[in-house]
Amino acid sequence: MNFFRSKTMSFQKLIIPRESAWDIMNILAEQDCIHFVDFDPSVPMINRLFSNHIKRCDDLLIKLSFIEHEIKKYQKTITYSKDVNLIVQNFKLLIRDRSKASQTYLDNVEIDIEKKHLQLIEQVNNLEYLYEKRNKLIEHKYVMIKGQAILGKSFFQTANYVAEGFMNIQGKQLDYIKLLQGSIKFNYLVSVINKEDKIRFKRIIFRITKGNVWMNIMDIDNYEIIDTTNNNLRLLKSVFVVVYPGGGGSNLITNKLHKICESFQITKYKFPENNIKFQEILKQVETDLVETKNLLQMTQSQMDAYLDDFLSVSHNSKCSEIEELKLFLIREKYLYTQLNYFQLQGSALYGSMWLPEGMEIKIEKALKEVQNKNEGLPAGYLQSSLPQGSSPPTYFETNEITWGFQEIVNTYGIPRYKEINPGLLTVMTFPFLFGVMFADIGHGLCLLLLGLYLCIYNQDIKNANSVLKHTLIVRHMLLMMGFWAFYNGWIYNDFMSVPLNLFGSQNEINQYKWVLKDESCVYSFGIDPVWMCVTNELTFINSYKMKLAVIIGVIHMSFGIILKGLNAIYFKNWLDFFFEFIPQLIFFICSFGWMDFLIIYKWFINWTGRTDEAPSVITLMINMILAPGQQVIPPLWGDGISEASTQTAMLLIALICIPIILIPKPLFLYHRVKKQEKEIQKNQTQKDLYRELNQESNLQESIKISKQEIHHEDFGDIFVHQVIETIEFLLGSISNTASYLRLWALSLAHGQLAEVFFQMCLNGGISSGGFVGAIRLVFGYSVFSLITFGVLMMMDVMECFLHALRLHWVEFQSKFFKADGYAFQKCSYLKVMKENVDLNE
């Protein structure tokens, strides 16, 4: 059973001639069953044999990303691959039909992408230049028009003389400045500024010149000015005119204004000195603007046609050309990355790999296929070998149902090779524990229907590119979580805080009190709805859920301890089996298993009419430790003496198990270590004698070998480690059992929140009745729906999910799960390309 324990692995050596390395790796990557082992992980990838090929692929992918950015910039749609198998088959056809060597196809792709990339850069630069030119011409045009509107025609008059720096125009109006124009020379600064900067610019001008200027700003109504460096964002501009006294040369105010313009990156425009010149310049600007717009439109059309070539959909691959090229480069990069795990020795590449048992025949067949297709190329050689110091990888075959649960386990840690996989058990226990916490008929039904909808219409949702597409991967998990929440809602008889009376009640009112119709009756299913009407409802429900949570927790953890024993049997680790598994299981059963027995036994006794005589389970457990052997009063059965004797026996057995867990294992381990050291020293002495007889005096090598083989470990280290393990188990048994009370706490919180929402939003409208009640019910139901969806169906689902996750990671898996393995990373084109396609989606 491959999902219960990892697939059996075989270690193989592979020798590949360098001239056929690409062809052999290409066909091996199509087999989806190989885990290549890096010959030396300490060697940087840049120093590997095929690092140059990987760099070429990375450079080409960057260039394709630039092309893809331009395509999206022009709001064009790329057809992504829906079926990676079509891409793989298409690449096989392309390479098969080539007359040249297969690996040279990358050279052709590289030349093609380089050429298209350079052409695209040229087109983009031309467009940017034309956009900038159009922006400048539009600015110049509006500088002329708005400048004339601000200054008026009288400013074209020439001054009789110049008096620089002596005229103060602070606070003067433009009409007053016009009157002085005949006798004083004024300078003009006319340009364009971003609309968002005009207030700041005006404030700085006023402060620098101390108000000795006249300034006006008018907004440009044209929205054709764009920012080519920011995805062609529309820019809002304003024309400003600054009039200040002074001659035409350089003076203090002129220098200050120019520096301010430089800080704002403002292009200064020269305003014409007379009306005739003004008309000539304006006409020329408008002519240039029309020509630039026509040229820009023509360049954009060429750009569209050029980008459309990248969007052409291939008949074989069913995706755009740019997507096909991108996937090919990802495929090539992956191939050379796998080849970098090999070591070059002479003219051959030597590598190691793990194969699932039975796949050797498949690989040998693939190697022969390469030789048959390419006559003259030497084939690879596969040889079975013993692993060198590394344990095999862990490999489980998953499907759409088990994938999500296996990921929950892998997030905590990869199972050790051949260790029992918690993922198989998580498929059953995770949705159930979630359902215990989220137990509600109505809310569970909503989650169940969502899971059913995702499972039935998964293909339609995927094709429609719906928002729910990202939840398809966990649709089976949602389905099971919804089912168990729905089922446990019936157990608790809770429909959004309202009990359902489907099976009737076994109680009736007699003299204003609820009494049983038949004292020997058992309710059909779940909880009698009458419990929701009595004064001690919360006390009863809390007691019931809390005890149920403890029972579930003890059963769950006991099963985890049993799995530890199964692992010990499988690995033939009899030391762990006899001195950890058996005493731990006995300790747990005699302590917390005994507590569960008391709870269940108490449930089977009819306490009607004598509830005061019912003993407290908590009191019984406390007295079991603090007052062992004393008669139990009140007793759960008999006169209390036999019960006390049983409890004392349970306590003694549990206490005896503690030293059994603590002491024997370190002693056996220390004895084993000493025995191994003696054997190693004996073997080393024989090696040294052999070297002396053969005149081999490489002393440094001998010392190095001996240090690697001898692993010394003191008894103190072993014993301290076992003390920690023992304390962790004993204290963990208590804390982990208490941790399962979250099953009760989350269920209680869910039920109380649902009750509060019902009482605050709906109960008032239902109680009022009439027209007012109907209005209150309409508004109340709207609020009730929104708050139920937001708090209970979103936040509480996530909360219960995380708590179920913690119960599996900490409380359950800690009993048997080592989580120190590493995953089987199969060499697969399908896998790496599918990951890229999923990122695009």
Automatic annotation (TrEMBL):
The keyword Transmembrane applies. It is a multi-pass membrane protein. It is found in: Membrane. Keywords: Hydrogen ion transport, Ion transport, Membrane, Transmembrane, Transmembrane helix, Transport. One of its GO terms (biological process) is vacuolar acidification. Pfam families: V_ATPase_I (PF01496). GO terms for molecular function: ATPase binding; proton-transporting ATPase activity, rotational mechanism. The chain crosses the membrane at residues 424-453, 473-492, 548-570, 582-605, 617-637, 649-670, 781-805. One of its GO terms (cellular component) is proton-transporting V-type ATPase, V0 domain. InterPro entries: V-ATPase_116kDa_su, V-type_ATPase_116kDa_su_euka. Essential component of the vacuolar proton pump (V-ATPase), a multimeric enzyme that catalyzes the translocation of protons across the membranes. Required for assembly and activity of the V-ATPase. Belongs to the V-ATPase 116 kDa subunit family. This is V-type proton ATPase subunit a. It comes from Paramecium pentaurelia. The lineage of its organism: Eukaryota, Sar, Alveolata, Ciliophora, Intramacronucleata.
